[in-house]
Write a structure and sequence with these properties.
Helix content: 10-25%
Number of helices: 1
Number of strands: 7
Strand content: 25-35%
Number of domains: 1
Order of helices and strands: EEEEEEEH
Radius of gyration: 13 Å
Structural class: alpha+beta
CATH class: Mainly Beta
Shape: globular
Length: 105
């Protein structure tokens, strides 16, 4: 399980709106039993009321989704089973969204 690995949302009830979770936690903290993960939202268009740093899209398996950095949380590593993709090539967008939440717009 590596930073930026992306998983199908294990919460079936949330999967329609948030189909994927991407691990944001550094690989240096892999000894912990949880992973900081960011949900990726399925939206018909970019969020109109969000600043650019919070409304950039990413692609997962050919689908356009939007980072929901404000909803990051700890997930038990054991529920994140098999990665479906790596978001490493799009890491800058994910880091930027998380930084906007932490440091401000």
């Amino acid at each position: 399980m590596a930073q930026f690995d992306t998983y199908e949302n294990p919460n079936v009830a949330q999967r329609v709106s948030f189909p994927y979770l991407v691990v944001m936690q550094s690989d240096q903290l892999s000894h912990h039993s949880t992973r900081l993960a960011m949900p990726l939202a399925r939206l018909p268009r970019p969020p109109a009321d969000s600043p650019k740093r919070l409304s950039q899209s990413v692609q997962v398996l050919g689908e356009t989704v939007y980072p929901s950095a404000h909803l990051c949380g700890a997930w038990p590593a054991q529920v994140l089973r098999v990665p479906v993709a790596s978001m490493r090539p799009q890491a800058d967008v994910l880091r930027d969204a998380l930084d906007a939440v932490i440091s401000g717009i």
